[in-house]
What does this fold into?
Amino acid sequence: MQQKTDKIKPSEKILTTAFECLSTRGYANVSMRNIAKEAGVALSQLTYYYKNKEKLFIEVINMMTVQYLHEIEKNLESVMGEKEKLASLVRFFKELIRNKPKLLKLFIDFIAQALWIPSFREQLNSLFTELTQIIEENLLTDPKTKKKYLEYSPKTVAKLILGALLGTSIQIVLGSDRDSAFESLNLAESLLN
Amino acid sequence: MQQKTDKIKPSEKILTTAFECLSTRGYANVSMRNIAKEAGVALSQLTYYYKNKEKLFIEVINMMTVQYLHEIEKNLESVMGEKEKLASLVRFFKELIRNKPKLLKLFIDFIAQALWIPSFREQLNSLFTELTQIIEENLLTDPKTKKKYLEYSPKTVAKLILGALLGTSIQIVLGSDRDSAFESLNLAESLLN
DNA sequence: TTATTGGTCGTACGTACGTCCGAATTCTAT
DNA sequence: ATAGAATTCGGACGTACGTACGACCAATAA
It folds into this structure.
């Protein structure tokens, strides 16, 4: 029965357990020992595979970044027209908030850590850059769309879209009345159309 | 010469020093001992006045909340017309980012802590509520303004504005190219007009 | 068979943390 | 002047942390 779970590579088991712990309790409140214990592995295994706590967290974020950036791009490719793509992006975020709030929390926690830890900051910056580019290339290339924002560059528009999605998500994840804030995302969509 | 600084109440000295430390290095990276030392006060004084680290941070946030909420309201009262008030709010945020980035960092850090610490979360929620109300009452009462957003409630609009300001600020504080992201705030303003 | 390598483990080191406590000092009101 | 309260101090307690180390074990290659 447990054959398969036993065959999981320890390094992967550590990684997924680390994600579970970090996204549930936060970087500052999770110790290497916690992760080791929960993964059913010796503490020193974490050092062996990931060197230290900082690098382990970076790997966790990396894993999530790769996975979800792909998912976003797949989502955007699956519909035609920039209006529809925007709708699709908003829908993606709403589903993320509803179904994977832990992922959002992990991400917000990571942002805060990036304030003080240079290696995190670097990684976060490249994530922001990639996200902005995806938005730019998918939602803002049509001349018709461009005209609407006249003097503003696509990059500026993309950053605002990302900012609004991020800021609203934060309010939702942390706030009490979830549904009222969801409405804000709908409004964002219609304002941009 | 130092008469005046010596006369500062220790509790206040602790509070301002705590702000300085927290906004420079972050909640997780600042110890009670750090603050005590920097404030020139015995460690146990922090416990005496603020009970524990959590409550001390809450007091710091409280101080900042009171001060800057007042400042925002004062700012909004000083101009007439909802368009102008929106412009004034955006200007306020831009100046905040430019002149008091440490305050922004403190705030972002606080948001992340609020993910895991219930007392922080409570305080953050009431701060969000107050901010939303200020926006609602100052920028969204004019019937002319209301019409623009048709089916959306003022609260929803207010939350989006707050979200966009917050999300964009985060990108600016953490990002490398500050000026390009400032543009996003200008765009936000014109989109809402 | 033996030697080498990669993986696994338990443990220990040094340090830092938040909190607590009892004694000393200063202030205040009678 | 003095009792009592408020303040200040240094130090200690127990715990938790990230990291490092050296000993095993299993598989592989010569």
Remarks:
- The CA atoms of residues 32 and 53 of chain A lie 7 Å apart.
- The mean pLDDT of chain A is 89.
- The two ends of chain A are 53 Å apart (CA to CA).
